[in-house]
Structure formats: structure tokens, C-alpha cells
Amino acid sequence: MKYEIVFWGHVNNGIERYLPLMVSLKRRGVNTLLFYQNFDYKDYFSKSQIRIIEKYDLQVKDYSSYMGKDIFLRCANSAKKFFKKIGISFFYNKFNGLCSKLVKKNVNEELVAKMFAEFGHKISFFDDIHICKDTDYPYGSYCIKKMSDERRIKSFSICPGGTVHMPKSVKIDHVELIFDKIYAPNAYEKEWNEKVYQCGPSQNIISIGDPRNDLNWKKEIESLYKHDVDRKIRDLSSGPKFKILYVCGNLENFNKIDQKHNDLRDMGRLSKEIGNISLFIKPHPRYRNENIIRKIMSKMGVKDFHILKNEPLICYRDHMDLFITSGTSAIQDLLPGSYKKIALYDTIQRELDLKNIFSDILPCFNSYETLYAFVEKIVSGAGYVDNLAEEEVINFCKKWVAANDELDKVIENITNDIYAELNIE
User: Fold this and answer.
1) What is the pTM of this model?
2) CATH number, domain 5-63+107-214+404-422, options 3.40.50.280, 3.40.50.2000, 1.10.8.60, 3.50.50.60
3) Helices and strands (H, E) in the chain, number of each type
4) % of the chain residues with pLDDT over 70
């Protein structure tokens, strides 16, 4: 099959932004392919992503289609799956690393040329890959970008949306990079790209919105998983307890090991000291660190806690009494409708000298004592703090995920722009 567009993906955030565009483009009669730049995408994609792919019959490939005859790679992948199934993360990670090294070894310009001849696409669509040099990861990106340029295939990119921690100043050297077009979720990300990346005329960076936060897409996603989440919460319910869902941020780049899980520890302490709380924990989709979570909760003596899978956060909004997070773009899944149920607990931003954009519209605490007082008041029945009108929250969302347009027009606007680029008669 020939494709008009190939979406080259390597991270969850990028894939979550590709899927709504692929569905929308398919409805317009455009053939697209999602190519995952690793081996065996079903091992890496979340169950929710797999379900979307299957429901909408989207085309997906990975390097297993071209490296399946590598006996060492096949054996390493089988071992990786086995250890994942029996829950031994140490050996799973070891074989996962071996698979990655073998994939990297197999990727070269000859292989990429073979793929391009098979795909016949007009647009190469990259996720958040802004250093197109011959680096280890994502596997093949340098060859893919180079060959796209040589064959005059347009190169597009999409930025992650809902920026949470904004640097107070931009101090990054320019990177040699040329994209024909970059889709940014908001004016801030557009400005960031203009300052940091050399990508041709500024009009090639469009502030247009974040497709994963389009209201219509949220409704479709919720309809897909609501039944599963309803059943899960019913099975996990510990009676009429106050339910808190803590959403973990990405702390992998936070180097102070002794501090990076302090907020998670405080969640365990909070549930124990206040009592009558059932704690639900949603790990970061790329860095779940489930063993660390279990060790922390066990050490603190927390019994009533549950680690959730990667179902969309929006499906939990009717089941939880309160959502707490240090700040993550996943908060946008709950906005604007559920803003009264969200509180920020962020003790890390001071360490990194960063600003949390959500602190402008949500209750925000940077000490355990203030968070405790807030939650204890709610659990005791005193009610929530209504610090903003709904209209203000809607305008905030429009600014950050819809480029000041309507929240249900993001996918339509991006689809129209991509469709025009294809010059389909």
C-alpha cells in the first residue's frame, strides 16, 4: 500500500498527537502510516493506543517488518516479552536494552531507502524530534530526515502541548534543523521554536493547537474506555472512602535522587494521616517506575493504594473526589470541566527555577502542611475552594491547547492545513 503521509513516532506523547490526526485524515480519504521507530510496537504502545488503532483500523508498522530475520533480535525480543509477562523488570530492561542496540545496528540508509520505496509518501511527519543529527535515538531519524530532504518529501513536525514548567529564559544554542512546517499548540511554543530552532521562515511555525486535547477527540476517547474504567473502579473500591488520584509527572531528568520522589512520599503520608482515603496513582506513561511506587508505599505502611494503567485520565473524572499532581500536561485531559477537582502539589519547581502555568488557575501548594490543611478541609466536608469562574478556565485552555481558537476545532484546523499541503485534486 502507498501512503500520502508517514508519521514517524518514538514517544507516547507524539503518538497520542498522531492518532487523532490519522483518524481525521482517514475520514478525508488520506492514506497514512504510523511507523514506530523500534521493534514490536505492541510491546511499547499503551493498551489505550492499541485499542484506538484497532477501532479505527489505522496502519502501523515498526522495524520488525524489516528485521524479522535477525535471529538474535528475535530471541532477545522473545526473552523481553517473557520477563515482562512474569513481572521481572530487571531482566525485561536488560533484554529491552539489547533489542535497542540490535535495532540501532540494523538501521542504515539502505534500509531506509527500501522503506521509502515501499511507502511512496509525500510528507514525513516527525514527533518531538528536534535534534536531527546522527544520534543513537530515535533509531533511524537522521537517515529518515536526510532521505526526506534528498527526495523532496516535505518534513513536518508537531510539538507537545500544554507546557507545564516554562523556563524563565531561553539559553539554548541554535540547532541545525530545517522543517517545512511545525505545528505548535500555542504562541509560547511557537516562540520557543523560533528562538531555539532554525527551521526556515517564521511563518512555517504555526500556532494551531494540540490535537489530543480537542474536545471532540476527548469525547471519542472517553466513550472507548468508560466501561473499562467504571468496572475497574468498582472492583478496586474500598467502600465509601475519599478517592484521590495522584498523577505522576516525569522526573527522569531531575537529578537529585533523594528528592525526586518526595511528592509521592507525601501522598502516602497524606492518605495515612488524614485517613479514610483510597489513593490511586497514575504513573507517567513513559517512566512508570511501578516498583519504586510500591516500595515507597510499602515502606510508609500505606495499604489502600492502587497503581493505574494508561487509560486516559478523562475517564476517571467522575470517579475521583480529588486529583493531585505536581504539574503535567495530562491535567489538560480534565480541563475545563473538572477544574474544581484539581490541586497542584509542586515542591520541585523551586529547585529547577521554573514556572508552573497551571498555578494561575488551580490551587497550588509547595509545602506538605498547606496541602494537608487543604485536603483535610475537603475530606471533612467543608467543600472545595472555587478560585476561578469556568469562563476563565475555558479561556486558559483555549490559550494553551487551541491557540486561542475553539476547543473543538483543533483537529479540524490541523487536518485542513495538512490536506491543503497534499495538493489532492
Assistant:
1) 0.88
2) 3.40.50.2000
3) 16, 17
4) 85
